[in-house]
Amino acid sequence: MNRIHPAVTSGLDLTYKGTSNGAYDGFDRFGRVVDQKWQNSTPTVKDQFKYGYDRASNRTWREVAPDGGNPTGFDEFYTYDGLQRLTKAERGTLAGSPYSSITSHTKRQDFGLEALGNWKTFKEDAGDGSTWDLEQTRTHNPVNEMTGISQNQGQTQWIVPAFDLAGNMTSGPKPGSETTRIHMKYDAWNRMTAVYADDGNGDPGDLIITCRYDGLTRRIQKIVEGSPDVTYDYYYNEAWQCLEERKTPAGGSTTVYAQYVWDIRYIDAPVLRWRDSDNDENHTLDETLYYTNDANMNVTALVEPDGDVVERYAYDLLCHTRLAACKVPPAHGPDADPQPVAEKAIIDIYDPAAPLQANISKKK
């Protein structure tokens, strides 16, 4: 099986082929992906992932780019309970033959699950694997809403979320700054329409973002508060995939900011994006980037038309986007779009001014 981006110099092919004709070593006898490569016609591997499974088809390990150019220390190993629920996830360098553990930890998480699957306890170590940086005990009500979070002594206390009668979270911890509370507002159809900062007394304060929707519940507009406010309008196809994004600064003119092309393999798999990267007066879509993905359809790298990888993405063990490496620093500033390119085509974060957290130093 091959997927080809012919517009990229020397090509950009997704392949599961082996070294001999007719062999597809990228799949095991049960049709599960075990080796996936993005490579050019040389062939030079641009992005690669290998996988292992247990008898229940749970993924037990993920090896990142053994032949590609990805950073090291991003392999993962997973542990499950008797109900096939994930209870431990570790990141670092895979060890053993066959792989059975992680060495040189760069991240690990431990989930203590109750009968309904809620996290009774949660532990996280973002460092060397020797001590837990975060140890939490959580409580839930009969409808599985979180009612309490307690930390180990000496650890920073997270904000406890609050919910309305429909189950919507009306306030909770700010992503990436969990000791700060943010507030959410919803319409009659339980769609989030606004996010507010906290006023310091536990009530909504300054407006951060406003969202508007069409009759199909697609978000068609986002207004980001700032100096000036910026309005983004979104246009979709019949599959709810965003095809075009337009940007209007307060008092300015509406311009086409980005356009997207989507893959037929999966509804949330982008192929490429054209963007007005410099926000100049010509409003031309001067930037073209192609997407690569892993077997879970997570975006893992961005490739320029000349074939160079400009950014790579890793994810928290629960799939929150983090920048793994980049050739060109992400654009930040009054006219910049602060969101990761990998995340931009699919979702939006609540606070668009939140800085992107890099896992490793930027690629030169």
Could you name the key traits of this structure?
364 residues; mainly beta; 14-stranded antiparallel β-sheet; 11-stranded antiparallel β-sheet; globular
Account of the 3D structure:
The strands form 2 sheets. This protein has a 14-stranded antiparallel sheet with strand order 12-13-14-15-16-17-18-19-20-21-22-23-24-25. The protein has an 11-stranded antiparallel sheet with strand order 1-2-3-4-5-6-7-8-9-10-11, with no helix packed on it. It has 364 residues and is mainly beta. 1% of the residues lie in helices and 47% in strands. The longest helix is centred in the C-terminal third of the chain and has 4 residues, at 341-344. The chain has a domain at 252-364.
Task: Show the helix and strand layout.
Elements: E1 2-4, E2 13-15, E3 35-39, E4 45-53, E5 59-64, E6 75-80, E7 86-95, E8 101-113, E9 119-125, E10 134-140, E11 146-151, E12 162-163, E13 169-174, E14 177-186, E15 192-198, E16 204-213, E17 219-224, E18 230-236, E19 242-249, E20 255-262, E21 270-275, E22 287-293, E23 299-303, E24 309-315, E25 321-326, H1 341-344
Antiparallel strand pairs: 1-2, 2-3, 3-4, 4-5, 5-6, 6-7, 7-8, 8-9, 9-10, 10-11, 12-13, 13-14, 14-15, 15-16, 16-17, 17-18, 18-19, 19-20, 20-21, 21-22, 22-23, 23-24, 24-25
Shape: globular
Summarize the amount of helix as a percent range: under 10%
Beta strands, count = 25
Instruction: Give the N-terminus to C-terminus distance in angstroms.
Output: 33 Å
The share of residues in extended strands comes to over 45%
Which regions contain 5 or more consecutive residues with pLDDT less than 50?
328-364
Question: What does the average pLDDT come to?
Answer: 84
> Helix and strand succession?
EEEEEEEEEEEEEEEEEEEEEEEEEH
Structural Rg: 22 Å
* Structural class estimated from helices and strands: mainly beta
Note the main sheet. 14 strands, antiparallel
What's the number of helices? Answer: 1
| Widest sheet, order of strands | 12-13-14-15-16-17-18-19-20-21-22-23-24-25
